[in-house]
Amino acid sequence: MYLAIQIVLVITSILMALFILLHKGKGGGLSSLFGGGMQSNLSGSTVVEKNLDRVTIVTVIIWLLCIVLLLLFKTFGW
After folding, report:
1. Residue 76 resides in a domain
2. From which residue to which does any coiled coil extend (predicted)?
3. Angle at 46 between CA 41 and CA 52, to 5 degrees
């Protein structure tokens, strides 16, 4: 069980990084520094962004649960 939670933690970590990088920039910052500000008007839709937000939030919740479960396993020696 401990190994399975560790594997889920690694997978959700990779997915979380990927989903965060898929979000479009919200204004001035590093995304507009590299030309992301010009493309933000041309690509993406609000439905896609909302779904990406939901998937990212679910991934973060699973990631946090894995961390808490691993801490409980380590603390109580299950």
Report:
1. yes
2. none
3. 110
